[in-house]
Write a structure and sequence with these properties.
Elements (H helix, E strand, L loop, with lengths): L5 H14 L4 H8 L3 H8 L7 H10 L11 H4 L9 H4 L3
Helix pairs in contact: 2-3, 2-4
Length: 90
């Protein structure tokens, strides 16, 4: 999945959480944050702490790519890939 905004990142996190049948409280406990923080991120909060976003993605086993595209992505298979340069809002 290609993510182009904070709201799309939030939707990805929500989707991955729901695939695991976890509540926001469950995910928050695993990440070490509040359920309010998870809710804000899932709604696309653009100022979320990046380190906590990384910890959340790791908890959900979501890969994050930066730099040159891996071969599978270059060939069009970008499932589960987040492009950092598209998340930065000018």
């Amino acid at each position: 999945m290609m993510v182009n905004s904070a709201s799309e990142l939030g939707a990805l996190i929500r989707s991955e959480r729901k695939k695991r049948d976890w509540s926001q409280k469950d995910l928050a406990s695993r990440v070490g944050v509040s359920s309010v923080w998870i809710s804000q991120v899932e709604r696309g909060k653009p100022t979320a702490h990046f380190g906590l976003i990384l910890r959340t993605l790791k908890t959900l086993s979501v890969s994050l790519w930066a730099g040159d595209l891996p071969t599978k992505v270059a060939s069009g298979d970008d499932a589960g890939v987040i492009y950092l340069d598209t998340l930065v809002q000018p």
